[in-house]
Amino acid sequence: MQERRCTYELRREGGEAVYLDHEEGREIRIPQAWCAGLYQAAKPDPITDEGKFLEAVLNPVEGPPLRQIAARKNARTAAVIVSDATRSVPTAKVAGHLVDELKAGGVPEDGITFFVALGVHRDATEAEMRSFLGEALYDRGIRIENHDPYTPEKLIDLGRTSFGTPVKVNKKAQQCDVKVTVGKTELHEMAGFSGGRKSILPGVASEETILVNHRPEMIFAQGTGAGSLEHNPIHLDMLETAKLFGVDFSVNFVAGRSGEPAGVFAGGLESSHMASVAYLRRFCSVEVPRRADVLVTTPGAPLNCDMYQGVKSLFALSHLLEPDSVVLFYGAFPEGMNSLDYVEPLRRFQSDLQAARRYAWENYRIQMDHTLPTIDILEKGVKIVVCSDTVARQDILDLQMHPCTTMGEAMDTAIGLSGKAEPMIGFFPSAQSAILRCAQP
């Protein structure tokens, strides 16, 4: 087997440091003396034995196998809730096994429906749905449909959580006899980790439910943040919602070096998720021994689908940023900004960050969840250079950032904004995948 090349690489060539992003075909060259280093999370080795996926489904980390769950319930219908394309979950690796297990437990094939857990994202395309199921299942006509968070008739009200969140979720999925989730566990800037309960909230929840869970008071509450679960109100609220929904079986992937599956954990909602979290924690802590004046970051796939998703890599750097820091943020972003709500408060109050913050709190909409952390960074005095030829220049300017279309232009701009003749430049690709710990005070 040919060895897989690292997505991001830092080489020394003569007196230069050369940063290479093989995924996007980007290159940055700087004097070696200016290079503060390349910092990224370690990644587990990929699964090379396809039998491991079936083994994980048949041998849950805790609780009975799926076929026993279905048989004990005398189930005739089943919902399999899967992530959308922004999460890049290798669902097809287990989709067929889940169908086989449900059928072995007595659920007829025409009683099985896959639901794409969109939250409030755009609908999954037919090609994306095909990729979720895999060619064989899709061509067999297994049902798959997009979740609708907006239409009241398609939702069911299950009450409220202890955090006051109304639990309104996909009615058709919730009323199935057996409910299964498939997701991916990775760091999450608010909920601590993705996966598990996030398939329900935000996955198949109503817009109202997501909005209340993602409200500013929760985002900025003590305990929230990447890698944090204990006392994290967003996580706990999601978990209560998932329990009210009634998840019977859950599959959680962990990704490897280039996004391929490197871990898979199945079983009860909490037990399988916590097993995947424990595995991921072994790889995601990164120590940064020296401060950089210019920090270069990109989200990588799949978050480079648009800038709204992509800024998660920017937020992951927040505690490394000083008032004179400069961030060079780049990405493919084929869908552009893809969020009017994210930009609106800063567009309205370009010269007044406090007014933009007040507007976002008082007129809050779901995708303003990224507006408020952006304002936090801007209020520090951090300068952000955005390299993209797909995001509208005016959108970037409205965010009080500096638009550039080439890496050369972006690096020149970032160096100029640093105000230093020889700035230290650090590279932090997919920063959202790491818990970055700075050794300097």
Which features would summarize this protein structure in a list?
globular, 31% helix, alpha/beta, 17 helices, 441 residues, 6-stranded mixed sheet
Total beta strand runs: 21
* Count of alpha and pi helical runs: 17
What is the distance, rounded to the nearest whole angstrom, between the alpha carbons of the first and last residues? 45 Å
Low-confidence stretches: none
Q: Widest sheet: strand order? A: 4-20-16-17-18-19
Percent of residues in β-strands: 15-25%
Q: What gross morphology would you assign? A: globular
Mean pLDDT across residues: 95
Structural class: alpha/beta
The main pleated sheet reads as:
6 strands, parallel
Q: Give the % helix.
A: 25-40%
- The rounded Rg comes to 22 Å
Describe this structure in words.
- The longest helix has 13 residues, at 92-104.
- This protein is 31% helix and 23% strand.
- Strand 18, helix 16 and strand 19 (402-404) form a beta-alpha-beta unit.
- It is an alpha/beta fold.
- It is globular, with a radius of gyration of 22 Å.
- Strands 4-20-16-17-18-19 form a six-stranded parallel beta sheet. It has a six-stranded mixed beta sheet with strand order 7-6-5-10-13-14, sandwiched between helices.
